[in-house]
Design goal:
Elements: H1 2-9, E1 18-21, E2 24-25, H2 30-36, H3 38-45, E3 55-56, H4 57-68, E4 79-82
Parallel strand pairs: 1-4, 2-3
Helix pairs in contact: 2-3
């Protein structure tokens, strides 16, 4: 949908891009952490994140700031994934982990 909207609106000078966030430390996880605790939930989530950590809200905000700035005036129809590599390696890059097996 992002690319279709970008193609439709770009001739009018409107840029459409998409930010796809991954697991980030925000209150959205509170309901899931209520029963097991945030530390336990985070420990489980990071096994699928190659960087080995959850993101921070500020990291997603930085991408939004870039897209809103004049530095991105030629960026149209892009999807920027901010998930520590989870999308590109859904098993958390097991070949590079010492405790997989």
């Amino acid at each position: 949908m992002t690319r279709v909207m970008a193609a439709e609106f770009a001739p009018r000078g409107i840029r459409v891009n998409q930010i796809t966030p991954g697991a980030a430390r925000t209150p959205v996880w509170n309901p899931h952490a209520a029963s097991v605790g945030m530390d336990a939930l985070e420990k489980k989530l990071v096994t699928a994140i190659p960087l080995g950590r959850m993101g921070e809200a500020e990291e997603v905000a930085s991408v939004a700031l870039f897209l809103a700035s004049s530095d991105s005036t030629n960026v149209v129809g892009a999807e920027i994934v901010v998930d520590g590599g989870a999308t590109s390696s859904p098993l958390g890059a097991p070949a590079h982990r010492t405790n997989w097996g």
